[in-house]
Design brief:
Elements lengths: L7 H19 L4 E4 L14 H29 L2 E6 L2 H5 L5 H21 L4 E6 L14 H9 L9 H13 L7 E2 L9
Parallel strand pairs: 1-2, 2-3, 3-4
Helix pairs in contact: 1-2, 2-4
Length: 191
């Protein structure tokens, strides 16, 4: 499919270089935060093979391969915290964002499975599934769009990057939480 190239080859080379450099310079990999991501609004019937490949490679493959490499060091140290940034759409799905929602749901599934697999090695794996956060990814939302979102949000405010970074900080410091998908979203979705 696509170009026929193995998507792992170039990606794994870059990931291997990155993790090797971190391990060499910092003498270990204690925390991994997977935060790469792109979004695209498009009707399901209009999503091209290129759109789909780009979305899955950026949002899902990157998390898989980076985690796979970092875990090698964490297992040896018998310690680590992996925090995956997914999306509320991984939990609820998003109209006109099927490929994005699929990738983010995949991250949450990986989070739960890895938490079970890596727990005995004292490695915690969690996912943060933000709601509507005022970031570049949502810069296309108009004032009217935000008004509609806030109407459905019990806390009646936008989320900001600081809200997510506080959650990340807590998960890095906490030693008993693993396998969880935490969704800071102001109450927009309560699960």
């Amino acid at each position: 499919h696509g170009t026929g190239k193995n998507p792992k080859t170039a990606t794994m080379f870059q990931v291997d270089q990155m993790v090797t450099t971190i391990e060499s310079e910092l003498h270990g990999v204690d925390v991994l935060i997977n935060n790469a991501g792109i979004a695209q609004e498009k009707l399901f019937t209009d999503i091209t093979e290129e759109d789909f490949d780009r979305m899955i490679k950026t949002n899902l493959y990157s998390v898989f391969y980076t985690t796979q490499e970092a875990v090698k060091y964490m297992i040896g140290a018998h310690n680590g915290s992996i925090i995956n940034i997914s999306s509320i759409y991984g939990l609820t799905g998003g109209a006109c964002e099927v490929h994005y929602s699929m990738a983010k749901a995949g991250i949450d599934g990986m989070t739960k499975s890895l938490a079970k697999e890596l727990g005995r090695s004292n490695i915690r794996v969690n996912s943060i599934a933000p709601g509507a956060i005022d970031t570049d990814m949502n810069k296309g939302l108009t004032d009217e769009d935000w008004k509609e979102v806030l109407k459905e949000t019990p806390l009646n405010r936008k989320g900001y990057p600081i809200d997510i970074s506080r959650c990340v900080k807590w998960l890095v410091e906490d030693e008993f939480t693993t396998g969880q998908v935490i969704s800071p979203n102001g109450g927009l979705v309560i699960i």
